[in-house]
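Final report, results section. Input specification for complex C-07:
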Amino acid sequence: MLFQGTFQSAITFNGSSHPLIPPVLGLHIPDGFLSLPVSLFGWVVAVVFIAISLKKVESVYGDRTVSLMGVCAAFIFAAQMINFPIPGGTSGHLLGGTLAGALLGPWAASLVMSAVFIVQAVLFQDGGITVLGPNIFVMGLIGTFGGYYLYRAIRFAIGRDRWTGAAIGLAIAAWVSVEAAAVIVAIMLAISGTVPSGVALIAMAGWHALIGIGEALITVAAVSYVWRTRPDLLFDPPRKRQDRLSRDQYT
Amino acid sequence: MSNRSSQMQYGKFFLIGLGVALIIAAVVSPFASSNPDGLERVAEDLGFIDRAHPEPLAQKLPFAAVFDGYALKGAPAVVATPVAGIVGALAAFGVAWVAGKLLIRKPGPSSDTRVDEYETRD
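Structure output:
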């Protein structure tokens, strides 16, 4: 009842930015929201997965990936600046983990997302430096690993070489990754004693269900461009065999 | 290259990607919504926004003298955000590129069998 009311009243209430803190974007957690143990947990997760990613990038990728990593980081940084309005006086922006994962695979994508969050925290005071680890975990790794493998499973189940399958997989994975990130932030805030868990869960999941739709639309649009122009650059490129290709050409 | 006539050349793809990123960072960014975002909004509504540290570590770095959030300090509004966007996008490009360059030693595309399937198609 109380929880329901919180999100309901949140929709009709037109809030204004708080003057005390610099404008933060998206899910970026500022310094001070998380307790030390919760923050440390986020750091451990981030460090473990980044270490795995460093190893994997060394062994799996070829040097063409280097420039793709750069472009992907620049694009996701730029896209994260664009807060789109959502109904009810709130805004959201792309996280991009699922997008990066589909383009580069989970390991290179995790390094790209980490690069973006490091630049945001260090240069632009967006997201606290003491909670950089938790931010990388929540906004990056959930998408690059969770989002990527969900997209891959759905796409391969429908048909690996069909755009429809890829689009459905991307849309669902992008939305789920944002919602999962919001829920995990709510849980972290609750364990930190910042806010009661029930209220935080409803409010965070409610808003991010809407923000996730934006994430899904942008992710599908961006990957569809690569699918049409250079599908071979995708981490899981569609297989265009000779027979299929020639048949496509004449139909 | 001839057997890839239907595909965009890699250099062109790369430049378009970087160009789109810089255009978004420089031209679109001033039009971004200034409504509070998801977490900020929840923090305001549920009354824990003042838990944010009043003097976060990032404010003590030398960069804080140059950028106030995503805005160049002391610059008029029309250039402050675009400059921050371009600097940030190039910095993100640089960090990710250097990480890749230091780690990746193998020539060519990813040495994954999945790519090989594609490469041998034509």
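Chain B is about 50% helix and 0% strand. The longest helix of chain B spans residues 77-103. This concludes the modelling results for the funded period.
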